[in-house]
Amino acid sequence: MFHDKSKLQSIYITIEKRFNFYLETLSVQCPAYEYFLEKLNQFKINLPLLTFEEINTDLQSIKQCTSIYKRTKELVNIF
Fold it and tell me: How far is CA 51 from CA 4, 19, 45, 47, in A?
């Protein structure tokens, strides 16, 4: 299968913070969110041909395409 390399391709990824309370440290943390951002930064370093851009937008204006998942106010980023 041949791909036309002159066409730009885009992938949109939304990230939702899931806050966890830890009894050991008595703190609220978002380890999955922090892990994702760390891996995204590694992609930026290791794959310089790919570009990543954070898009700040009004999330209410974006249509939700599934009914089994309900958005929360913690939906924070689109890359």
Answer: 18, 28, 10, 8
